[in-house]
Design goal:
Largest sheet: 6 strands, mixed
Distance between the termini: 59 Å
Strand content: 5-15%
Strand order of the largest sheet: 1-8-7-4-5-6
Shape: globular
CATH class of the largest domain: Alpha Beta
CATH architecture of the largest domain: 3-Layer(aba) Sandwich
Structural class: alpha/beta
CATH superfamily of the largest domain: Glutaredoxin
CATH topology of the largest domain: Glutaredoxin
Number of helices: 13
Length: 356
Amino acid sequence: MVRLSRAQMQEHNRAKVLAAARAELTERGFRDTKIDQIAERAELTRGAVYSNFPSKRALYLAVLAQEAEQAADRRYPPTARTASAALGDFARAWMARLPLVAEDRHSASRLGRDLLPEIVSDERISQPFSQLTSLSAIVLGLCLEQLPAPKRPAHRMVQVAEIALTTLHGASQLAAAAPGFGEPFAVVRACEQLAELDLDDTWHPAHLPHISPARPTDQPWTPPASTDALRDEPAHLHHDGVLAVLGLHRLAAIEEALRAAPPATAVTAVLVTSDPGELGPLARLTITDLRNCLRAAVAPSAWPRLQIIHDESGILAAAAAVSATSDATETAVRIHAGRIIARADGYGACHAAASA
């Protein structure tokens, strides 16, 4: 019998804990699931569970993130040619994840029913979730801006995306709290109509208060291999562009970089957090759900020039000379010819680096 290395054993135990937690959460729901029950089912000690996950909520979020990863479906390429059709397909993909009325209340599709109540119960997790949802709206809105909407003048569509996500999250909650209420196809149709609304949503750089310009610098840029979570493929980090290291309280600032940077400039958002145990899985879950729905709705050619990288360990941030990170971090650098040539820190850093 081949002996596993320490790292392999840790990974093996982590997989056992996740499998046991998924089974317990499916059968009992989040509130009635106990760590001791998970440990017993995984044939591990309580300490072994906590050595992999700092809390029951962290474990719950990790299970949901794993479920989202496994739910990815690439079989059908998107066919939408208008913003309305894309919003409808996005909503259809979202609604397809929700449990059916006839399904048992303990079915695996009902795993997510306790997610939003947990988020609402604790500001430490609700504020990052708000910013993650804003990031999702920015990405979806930028996609919609690339597609024609005949009845609507061309302008920013992030507010339309925000309303669509509000509608879909509400549908998710009602599916959990009031099974059978409402008609899913009506929700899809309503989302389609949102693309034709004129909300006078425009982007005005002048609304930003005075910010200091990026500081010239000259540092080597040797990034580690990373994954673009938005596309689930290797990230391209050696290209010229803007890289923003953002804590989970500052994610909406990435729109400043995307709007201010020249059209061909690559933009990368590096997500960092002071609580990787709980907030790391939440970020992965949110971005994976966004990716899965976008794949069903928008052709890759209409996706924004944005990469999103989860940097829970801080390795990529350190490569950009950001040694200390927190959920309030906002640092952006400009990269050219394998060097960091400009840097900005604090409020407005994304705009400053992108317009350097």
